[in-house]
Amino acid sequence: MTSEQSVEPESSPAETAKPRRAGFTYALGRSLISPLARLVYRPRIEGRENVPQDGAVIFASNHLSFIDSIAIPVAAPRPVHFLAKSSYFEGTGMSGWLSKTFFESIGAIPVRRGAGQAALDALDLQRQLLDDGLAVALYPEGTRSTDGRLYKGRTGVAFLALQTGAPVVPVGLIGTDKVMPVGAKMPTLKEKVTVRFGAPLDLSPHGPASSGRARRLATDEIMAAIHALSEQELAGAYNEAPAQGAIEKIKQALPHERR
To answer: 158: closest CA among 118, 114, 202?
Structure first.
């Protein structure tokens, strides 16, 4: 999505499937994966007391590695849902079943990613989970940082928080990029991970979700809190692929807000 106008979902409930809550598979996976991950990696977990024990909450985290979406559910004191590529759930045969079972076991919900309607549908799925009083995890940077720096936040997380009233718990992940760098097929056992949960943020003083200024200011507050926890170098730019062609270069050069 390339503009603030594209942030607000326009799809009706009939157009967007109801997300499936994490059920037995998640409970079983959490009971197995969490102790195993803690035994193997001995992660340092800070600030668990900052996480509300019930009600809607948004975990907003920096994003360094594929295993970030495992580290957060393992460290959090309550079930966490996040969106994952639908292809992880659509494979066939034994490998397809294993992939689907694994991602369900860590609280993932399938979604077709992309711009336009696909992105709006993803945002609506997350809103439905929050309306049900559940916890969701999102990455304001939009995609993984390949150089370890913290990039500017896109405003979708702030939009959800302002729209639903859910508090935002900032999360700082440290070391996940060393455990499993971008492109690696398997994690290493030599590195350690730190997961820091910050104090919940009430973003309502910034204004309504319909205000672009409110969304931007709320996003900046979220990113400042993540930066304080992760201690990363700031990139001062959005994390996006290099523009291909003259039109895309012009779009990136023009002033705009990105989710």
So the answer is: 202
